[in-house]
Specification:
The complex is a heterodimer of chains A (about 110) and B (about 550).
Chain A lengths: L3 H21 L5 H13 L20 H15 L5 H4 L5 H16 L3
Chain B lengths: L6 H9 L4 E5 L5 E5 H17 L7 E5 L3 H13 L3 E4 L3 H4 L2 H14 L4 E4 L16 E4 H4 L16 E6 L9 E5 H12 L11 E4 L6 H13 L3 E5 L1 H6 L2 H10 L3 E4 L1 H10 L2 H5 L8 E4 L6 H11 L9 E6 L6 E5 L5 E5 H7 L12 E5 L3 E2 L4 E5 L12 E6 L6 E2 L3 H7 E2 L2 E11 L2 E7 L4 E3 L2 E3 L1 H7 L6 E13 L2 E11 L8 H13 L5 E5 L14 H10 L5
Parallel strand pairs in B: 1-10, 3-4, 3-5, 5-6, 9-10, 11-12, 12-13, 27-28
Antiparallel strand pairs in B: 1-2, 7-8, 8-20, 13-14, 14-17, 15-16, 18-19, 19-22, 21-22, 22-23, 24-25, 26-27
The chains are: A mainly alpha (about 110), B alpha/beta (about 550).
Chain lengths: ~110, ~550
């Protein structure tokens, strides 16, 4: 019993490790989940987006819908997507990565 | 408006007022640029261009996504006596390879001496091996040194080289002089146009690399010395409400947009957002640049009535880059002409439909010829047709272009005996112009004429098919009737079952025409212009080459 504190921190470390693993090993985090929700809402037909889905080829988005997506993401995550970044985004994974990096940059103290 | 003058003369006149341009960028940042400030900034950009060895008459391409920077660069190029060649920026070109290809084509075809761009966009251009082309950033030009006075150029000197994003395959450069632009701006502002008033406030999200945004909104505002709000098209496409909010906030009186913009507002502006709008100042809500659908405009007027919008504000307009911009305006709301579809398709006559008549086509009137300009409708032999007879639309007057840049063959086809052959089909009724489609794409079968846009609209709303991704074209064959092909772009990898049969049935029912082939292609395979219109001729070429589904 004397090492209870040690165990607790081990448990904590394990849980924390799981949380981190989920972010790197494919379990959806909030960026991913919310982005998927927004993608489904904007699509005019039922879709099941995956990280490697291409917006145009796989999800059937047109260029107007891509800009609509950017607008929705900006409002939802309170971010501003730079013009040049928009021209590089093709896949859902790139969308999620863009959102994650912009939100992280926003939250980092100046 | 003052007497005839160059673009810079117009800016100098505007600079003596306290008015100006509010630029709203893609991220909502807003900047007020008085005409006075704009003039002095233009003189600095002009001086910097001269310092880099550019001489009057040189063509300078312009690809700048930021609204305020585009405006500075445009008027700087003009004040230096150079000829701007506006290009579509990467965010609107679709993808980077498309952007690089399209901009390279225009840089080569225009034989531009320089391209003015931004630090962000410069690395995305493909300028390898283009001789004598200087890549300059607007950031580096803004510092000057300023020239004391703008470089004077004659009125008949080229003022703008506008590459069309028309439905034909390769964009062509439309050469417009200062006199052309002044004549068109004057007609736009005049009594048969917008009847401009000093208190007018323009609001536009239209791209500045396109004639409707550049000439119709920006230059018209400068020529008439009125305040204007110029918003990034990216902001509008991200949040269509931003357009209406700008009209509401700044008490906009004049704002133009294509039909799809009104559709986008219907789909994406939420009821709670409508409640916050006051659109009662909007006296002229222009619609043009693509087929006008009365249903869209009616629905818009109904939905936004509670924000103070009036259906009588609608102005249906017709124009093309080869005519500087505007040809005719249908004022005071939408004037619909309901005509018998059979008579129109089979006999090229627009007969008002009798009550209970079988099938009806509804067309929107675009008003009368502008003062000092003429319109006529001719048949295939060039004979002038009487009213209500469908034929080719010809225009004549001071707004007509000088020709296509270094393309005498295309120029000779478009300009004959002083008349501009617009390539569009229409008829006149009580002198009012009704536009029906483009002659170039006409499908002729058994002596009957079919207009692809009519056939396309019949099959635009099939399940699983992208409504903006439907192309119908004819292929001429010897000793056999034209082959008629429909290409449907699926929304996702797979379109709904039975879509091919549905398309055939629809076209059979509406036009009495049998499609020879219906092709369903994956998303993103139909070539489009930078403004999102399908390229019919190029789709046909790719179909014939067997590369459509690649």
């Amino acid at each position: 019993m004397h090492d209870a504190g040690g165990n607790a921190s081990a448990v904590h470390a394990t849980v924390w490790g799981l949380v981190q693993a989920s972010q790197t090993a494919g379990l959806p985090d909030r960026f991913e989940q919310d982005t998927f929700e927004i993608l489904k809402r904007i699509s005019r037909r039922p879709i099941e987006p995956k990280l490697d889905s291409e917006l145009l080829a796989d999800l059937g988005f047109d260029s107007l819908q891509v800009l609509e997506l950017v607008g929705e993401l900006e409002d939802h995550f309170k971010i501003a997507v730079p013009l040049n970044d928009m021209t590089h985004i093709r896949t859902v994974a790139q969308v999620v990565a863009e959102v994650r990096s912009l939100v992280t940059a926003e939250e980092r103290p100046a | 408006m003052n007497g005839p003058g160059t673009i810079t003369d117009a800016l100098i006149a505007a600079a003596s007022t306290d008015r100006g341009i509010r630029a709203i960028e893609h991220d909502g940042r807003s900047l007020l640029l008085s005409y006075n400030t704009l003039l002095s900034e233009s003189l600095r950009v002009a001086g910097a261009l001269h310092a880099r060895g550019l001489v009057p008459g040189d063509r300078v391409a312009l690809v700048v996504p930021e609204v305020s920077e585009f405006i500075r660069a445009f008027f700087g190029i003009t004040a230096a006596g150079l000829v701007p060649v506006p290009l579509c920026p990467p965010a609107q070109a679709g993808d980077l390879p498309t952007f690089a290809r399209q901009s390279r084509h225009i840089l080569v075809a225009s034989r531009a001496s320089a391209v003015v761009t931004s630090e962000d966009v410069a690395p995305l251009l493909d300028v390898s091996g283009i001789d004598g082309l200087a890549v300059l950033t607007i950031e580096s030009l803004r510092g000057g040194p300023a020239i004391a006075v703008p470089t004077r150029v004659p009125l008949n000197a080229p003022a703008l080289l506008q590459f069309t994003s028309g439905s034909t395959a390769a964009p062509k450069g439309v050469v417009l002089t200062h006199a052309n632009l002044h004549a068109n701006a004057r007609a736009i502002a005049g009594p048969r146009g917008l009847d401009a008033r000093p208190t007018d406030i323009g609001v536009s999200w239209l791209p500045l690399y396109h004639d409707m945004g550049l000439i119709g909104m920006l230059l018209s505002a400068v020529y008439t010395c009125v305040d204007t709000i110029v918003m990034s098209p990216v902001l509008f496409l991200k949040r269509p409400t931003a357009w209406l909010e700008a009209i509401s906030t700044y008490r906009g009186t004049v704002s133009f947009a294509p039909n799809f913009a009104y559709e986008l507002c219907l789909r994406r502006v939420k009821p709670s957002q409508i409640d916050a709008l006051d659109l009662s100042s909007w006296r002229l809500a222009g619609c043009g640049a693509e087929p006008i659908r009365p249903d869209t405009l009616r629905a818009f007027a109904e939905r936004f009535a509670r924000a103070g919008f009036r259906a009588s504000s609608f102005v249906a307009s017709y124009g093309l880059a080869e005519h500087s911009l505007a040809v005719a305006f249908g004022r005071d709301g939408i004037h619909e002409d309901a005509v018998d579809a059979q008579q129109l398709v089979h006999h090229s006559i627009a007969v008002p439909s009798a009550n209970g008549s079988t099938r009806v086509v509804r067309l929107v009137g675009c008003g009368h010829a502008l003062p000092g300009h003429e319109l006529k409708i001719v048949d295939d032999e060039g004979r002038t047709l009487p009213e209500r007879h469908l034929g080719s639309i010809l225009a004549r007057g001071p707004s007509v272009m000088q020709g296509y840049f270094e393309d005498p063959v295309a120029t000779a086809v478009a300009l004959r005996d002083g008349w501009l052959h617009t390539g569009d089909l229409g008829y006149l009724a009580d002198g009012q112009l009704f536009v029906c489609g483009r002659t170039k794409d006409l499908i002729i079968r058994q002596g009957r004429k079919y207009h692809p846009p009519d056939l396309e609209s019949a099959i635009a709303d099939l399940p699983g098919v992208r409504s903006s991704g439907v192309v119908v074209f004819g292929i001429s064959r010897i000793d056999e009737p034209d082959e008629v092909v429909a290409v449907l772009e699926a929304r996702a990898s797979i379109a709904s079952d039975g879509v091919v049969e549905q398309a055939r049935r629809r076209v059979r029912e509406t036009a009495g025409l049998e499609l020879d082939r219906v092709v369903v292609t994956p998303p993103g395979t139909i070539p489009r212009t930078t403004s999102g219109k399908v390229r019919r001729a190029e789709t046909r070429d790719r179909y014939l080459a067997g590369t459509l589904e690649r």
